[in-house]
Design goal:
This protein is an alpha/beta fold. The chain is built from eleven helices and 13 strands. The longest helix has 28 residues.
Length: 312
């Protein structure tokens, strides 16, 4: 038995397909199949039901794959420990980021991180909060960046990165500088599709769930750009985070309005799963993201009493 074989059964359990598993491990299908068969013979158990399509992991196989995931992880931790002793920041960090954070945070942090730590390999995937939690538990990603507070469970650790204002985009009430939540209830509201935490935050903060739409056209977007385009063409309002405002043209920035104090803010945090934590790399990411992002935010000029964290 060796680590390579453990990586192969982890890949096959994940993909349920020999061809895809071999591709993810950068080996031929014949090599992967042979190595897994040898492991089964050594252990004298059947790990996978090859008669089914897709491939099914047996009950015994599931227990062994779970142990294999931990074994491969801790083997990687031994390498990380050696680098820690030498004081180096290097290795691979797999990061999951929710879409409403990824599009405005990643352009700020990626290049500075890679420039400062050339031996660091960042693998970033844009996925929903539910998928982040699932993949953290399975050891498929190392850390997640989500909007909090969020009920994650006892095995998850949370590090708050920053708070950013939530802003209104649209021409309504253009004569006013600030808005009250109740003032936009009767407006046409454009929302992200279900599954995006910012959608729930908008609904909760402005009590939009109490409003019944009378329109004969409904549309839910999956990106801020689409939301803004709908507002530009059809009127109404939408909600965007403060960091996204930095990406807008001057013309679009003129359509931004703020709520009154206490200002609604969203809390953005980095989370990791305790059994699989790469603590030194996680600590580095937290410190670097804070240093890069917080100087750009208006919330840094506000007292805590002037902010209200919007629930997801």
């Amino acid at each position: 038995m060796n680590l390579q074989q453990l990586e192969y059964i982890i890949a096959l359990d994940k993909t349920q397909n020999f061809s895809k598993a071999a591709e993810s491990c950068y080996v031929t299908q014949a090599t992967l199949s042979t190595m897994i068969k040898r492991l089964e013979e050594e252990l004298e158990v059947v790990l996978f039901d090859r008669k089914s399509n897709p491939i099914i992991t047996t009950d015994c196989g599931k227990e062994i794959v779970e142990m294999a995931q931990k074994t491969v992880f801790y083997a990687g931790q031994i390498k990380n420990l050696a680098q820690n002793i030498k004081g180096n920041i290097e290795g691979k960090v797999k990061v999951g980021v929710i879409p409403t954070i990824a599009n405005n945070l990643l352009p700020i942090i990626i290049k500075p991180l890679l420039d400062k730590y050339p031996q660091l390999q960042l693998d970033v995937v844009e996925i929903t909060t539910d998928h982040i939690l699932k993949q953290l538990k399975e050891g498929m990603i190392d850390v997640g960046i989500i909007s909090t507070p969020f009920k994650t469970g006892a095995d998850f650790e949370e590090e708050i990165l920053y708070y950013e204002k939530l802003l209104v985009y649209g021409n309504t009430h253009s004569e006013k500088q600030y808005l009250l939540p109740k003032e936009i209830i009767d407006e046409k509201i454009w929302l992200l599709e279900e599954g995006h935490c910012l959608r729930d935050q908008f609904i909760n903060f402005c009590s939009l769930n109490k409003k019944k739409s009378k329109d004969n056209f409904r549309f839910e977007a999956n990106s801020f750009e689409t939301l803004l385009s709908m507002v530009d063409n059809f009127g109404g309002l939408t909600l965007i985070p403060e960091l996204y405002e930095r990406m807008l043209s001057i013309e679009r920035k003129d359509k931004i309005q703020e709520f009154t104090s206490p200002y609604p803010v969203r809390e953005v945090s980095l989370i990791h799963y305790r059994p699989f934590a790469k603590l030194r790399l996680t600590e580095m990411l937290v410190n670097e993201i804070k240093a890069l992002v917080t100087p750009l935010l208006k919330t840094e000029e506000l007292h805590k009493s002037e902010q209200v964290i919007v629930k997801t």
